[in-house]
Design brief:
354 residues, alpha/beta, Quinone Oxidoreductase, Chain A, domain 1, Rossmann fold, 2 domains, six-stranded parallel β-sheet, 18 strands, 28% helix, globular
Amino acid sequence: MLTLRLHSEHDARLEEIPEPELRQGAVKVKVAWAGICGSDLALFETAPVPLDYQNPIMQESGPHALGHEFSGYVSEIAEDVTSVQVGDLVAVRPNFADGTCPTCRAGHPNMCDNYAFIGINGGGGGFSESVVVPADHAYVLPQDFSAQAAALIEPLAVAWHAVKLAKIPTDGTAFVVGAGPIGLSVVLALRAQGVSKIIVSELSEARKQLARDFGAQLVIDPREAEVVAAVREATGGRGVDVSFDASGIGKNTLQPAIDSLSAAGSAVILANFHGDVPLDVMPFLMREKVLTGSFAYTAEDFAEVRDAVVDGRIVPDALISSRIPLSDVLDSGIKHLLGEGRTTEVKILVSPSF
């Protein structure tokens, strides 16, 4: 079968490899659609996982297939599997925890000391024709549901977890910095969890419009207005209850996220930063502001997002900006997003059968 595997920095190859073998407790999924994530771009550029490293959970050396946001149709099931049937449409939860480390035992499996992801650490990847996954990682959707929307459940779960973590009151105000795929997913998650007062900061005209379409009450272009002043004016001088940095640019995005907070407000980081970020720390002392991170999601989060897209509380289809075949994933997908597509695309979906 055709798959995209990462060999080293800037060296990902479309290769023909044998189909994965079914194992006990698992199902084989014929991939329908897979999303390209910012993490895939970072992996392509830096290849941080050595080829000879074996994650304690996955126990596989590289090269590893890429792609962790994907949906598909179950083509085979192991004899001991009863929760999934052949033909089911599923969204795959790609993250794994060992369940035994101190972090897992403390109730934080998303931050397992040995955490692993399909599409990063082994176990195949969504940029393939087929993947074998544990049955409890295959979340069944209605047969008539969109397989493209199903592929968006994973990034939506990232946003869903961050919004839950923030504990924003439903009458509170949220500020989202960056309206890329994750920032827009945060807007959708906020609305689905009952928050309607949402402010977004974004440069791209297309993404600004999507933020409005998804329910943002105010969208600020930082080229046209001073962001913190605009947020405070919109909140009567108080500031917001929670802010989310979904851009990962650096101080230019994180400091406004902090400065826009009300007293005792919380800023949540859910983007990868690629360098040191100098900050003014006095607001944490004098105004008791809080800065925290949000990493991935739990099985509960993933199931809640699946339910929210099925019952219509989240309608994510407009996130999809392009659809391409697996054969074009490098040039029209990853390399395009690292170039001019960085500002013109939102979410590119890839399909082996497109």
